[in-house]
Amino acid sequence: MIEVTSLTKYYGPIRGIEDISFRIEKGDVVGLLGPNGSGKTTCMRILTCFFPPTRGRALVYGYDVVKNPLQVRRHIGYLPERVPLYPDMDVREYLRFAASIKGVKPAGRDGHIDQVMATCGIDDMANRLIRALSKGYRQRVCLAQALLNNPEILILDEPTIGLDPRQVSDFRSLIKNLGRERTIILCTHILPEVSETCNRVIIVHQGRLIALDTPQNLQEKVQMYGQIYVQYYGDDPGLEKKIAGIPGVVGVEGAEATFSGARACTIQVQKDETILRELSTLIHTEGGPILEMKKQTLTLEDVFLELVTKEGAA
Amino acid sequence: MGMWYIFRREVQSYFHSFIAYVIISAFLLLAGYFFYTDLIMQIMWTMKKVDFEKIWELFFNDIRYMLTIIMPLITMRLFAEEKKLGTIELLWTYPLRDWEVFSGKYLSALLMLCIMLGLTLTYPIITNALFHIDLKPLLAGYLGLFLIGSAFIICGVTISILTENQIVAALGTYLVLLMFWFLTWNEAVANPAAMNVMLNFSLFDRLYNFTRGAIDLKDIVFFVNFHLVFVVLAMLALSARKWRGVQ
Question: 0.90 cut: is pTM over it?
Answer without folding.
Answer: no
